[in-house]
Amino acid sequence: METCFLHHPEFTIENQDPKTIALGFFDGVHLGHQAVIKMAKQIADENGEKSAVLTFDPHPSVVLSKARKAVHYLTPLDEKLEKIEQLGIDIVYVVRFTAAFAELSPERFVEDYLIQLNAHHIVAGFDYSYGKKGAGKMEEMVSYAKGRFDVTIVNKQEAFDEKISSTKIRGAIEEGDLDTANELLGYPYKVKGTVIHGDKRGRTLGFPTANMQIDEDYLIPKLGIYAVRFIIGGKSYAGMASIGYNVTFKTDQERSIEVFILDFDREIYGEQAEIEWYHFFRSEMKFNGVEGLVEQLKQDEADTRAYFAQ
């Protein structure tokens, strides 16, 4: 897959092949997004054209919000591109979302981007908007096209009698409801990071853990204990993850993410790894002593093994 980064207003489009282009921010590349992208791929294949996606980075709220705030993604850009590539798309155009780009009128967005990219067909969700303050709606795209490209609008994709949306998925993850989040995503929610040194207390308890420094762009689930899969070196292992502050021992440390990897015994400090989140078991608990904590960890391990045995 070819990836092209465009910075408004000066950019050059080298590939002038006719294209079917899917439009969207696509954070999470969830089932709703997949419907749009797969439709674009299908139309492109039927017409013998290149399939393309036009997306943006960073999230518009980073630029448009008056309050400076960090934005945490379901799929930071690199992972979003990986998932789009898995859907068979030929080209992805990543527009740098800037204040100047945000001022484009809907008509200028069509002229300066879709026409310049040689779009022969545009595909987007029913609620996609474009141009300054999202003034352009998909029903109006045909009039802006002026016969130069076709337009397909993908209807609302639903689950649990609601629209599948990144906002819904984000809320589920923040509540620890990974079962719902994963069903809406169409795959297990995943974060990536580096294995770092911790205080090694888990070893003394019989539960050595991999402490993870997660890439800061990711959305992290709420505090608690989870069934996860830990992916390292191309292999996947069942595990139980803890997100918390080790309140039994400390109250002043930073939040940690630790994984007890089942049936695993290898030094992996400094290695890159991934965590797939599957199921929330319980909230973080403070114990009066080590004995109570160890008994609970044994139960957590049993619950984790039982979960994956299903």
Automatic annotation (TrEMBL):
Pfam families: FAD_syn, Flavokinase. Pathway: Cofactor biosynthesis; FMN biosynthesis; FMN from riboflavin (ATP route): step 1/1; Cofactor biosynthesis; FAD biosynthesis; FAD from FMN: step 1/1. One of its GO terms (molecular function) is riboflavin kinase activity. One of its GO terms (biological process) is FMN biosynthetic process. Its EC number is 2.7.1.26, 2.7.7.2. Residues 184-309 form the Riboflavin kinase domain. InterPro entries: Cyt_trans-like, FAD_synthase, Riboflavin_kinase, Riboflavin_kinase_bac, Riboflavin_kinase_bac/euk, Riboflavin_kinase_dom_sf, Rossmann-like_a/b/a_fold. Keywords: ATP-binding, FAD, Flavoprotein, FMN, Kinase, Multifunctional enzyme, Nucleotide-binding, Nucleotidyltransferase, Transferase. Signal peptide: none annotated. It is an enzyme of class 2 (transferase). It catalyses: riboflavin + ATP = FMN + ADP + H(+); FMN + ATP + H(+) = FAD + diphosphate. PANTHER family: RIBOFLAVIN KINASE, RIBOFLAVIN KINASE/FMN ADENYLYLTRANSFERASE. Belongs to the ribF family. This is Riboflavin biosynthesis protein.
